Each structure stands twice: as structure tokens, then as C-alpha cells.
Amino acid sequence: MVDLHHPADVILEIMRDRRQVSAKRLIEPGPASDQIEAIFCAAAQAPDHGVIRPWRFVQVPHSARDRLGEAFAAALRERNPDATAQQLQDARGKAMHGPFLALAIADLAGKDTNIPAAERLVSLGCALQNMLLMAYAQRYAAGLLSGMALQSQALRAVFSLAETEQAVCFIVIGTVREPKPARSRPQPGAFVSSL
Hints:
Blueprint: H1 7-17, E1 26-27, H2 33-43, E2 55-59, H3 65-79, H4 85-93, E3 100-107, H5 117-137, E4 141-145, H6 153-158, E5 165-176
GO molecular function: oxidoreductase activity
Protein name: Nitroreductase family protein
Cofactor: FMN
């Protein structure tokens, strides 16, 4: 039985209800500045071996979306010099979705080199999950966005990535236009075994 006055039940209910939502389906309103602060505070609670904070986030406000769109178009040209005008326009358009948008960046080798890249990525993954859950707890929808543009020189330049940094994904948050039904989730027996 779920007791929504018990913190563990509340957290599990939020986790069960959370959905991945594509950026195209997110509309205004997005989170207010105090809610964004709470979302980033949730990220700061992620496990961090060595206390090196091997990740950071760069917000992309609406005033910078055209610049991001041009980086997406340049990234497409890097991969496909023969991209059509329509393909380039579609690439630019991807920057315009979602009220709140931020790039998640992992530092895979900087600072304390005794912390392996895998642990650094796990820490970022935990930070992202905390952000998704906080956004959902605030009654917003959210999703993670990836793609080949993340590996491009154009995107690296726009976000001033250091040599040891990698763009991992975007996190997008807003109000969902049309909720989709829940997808089935695996039961623990499907992925848990004993030694």
C-alpha cells in the first residue's frame, strides 16, 4: 500500500510516474527561476567520489537559441557537407524546442585523475536523474536529448569545452502538450540476480 505521507513512498511514486518527454512535446510554461535553482540544487546532491564535481551544466536561454541552432547546422555540415537547405533548417529548428534547455557536460579526465571516466559519467547520470525527478515533482515534464551533434567541433566551440570535457546530453524541461500513457517498466527480477 502506498502511503503518500511517507517520504519513501512519495519518492517511489514520483519515480514510477516520471516519463521521458521529447522536446517537441514541451511547451510553456517552463520552470521559474526559483524552481530552476531547486533543480540545480537537486543535481548537486549526486554522488561525487573525490568531491571533484566532474560535470557542469550550461543553460541555453531563448536569447541564445539562434546561436545553438547555427551550431547544430554547422555540426550537420561537418558530418554531411552535402546537407540540403531543408536539412540545415531542420537542424536549426531543434534548438528552439522546450522552455528550459541546458547542456550536460562531463569532465572525463580533468582534476583528480585517479577517478576513472566511468565513475565521472555515473556521477553526471545521477545528477541528471535528480534533476528529472525534481522537475517532475514540480509538475513539469522533462527529457534528455542526445545526437551526433554533441560530438561536433561546432558544438564544442559554442560551449567552450575543455579538451577533457564531453557534451553528454541536453536536458529539456517544460509543460507537456499531450501526456502519453505509461510504458511498461521491468520488474526487478528481470535485471537482478545473485552471485
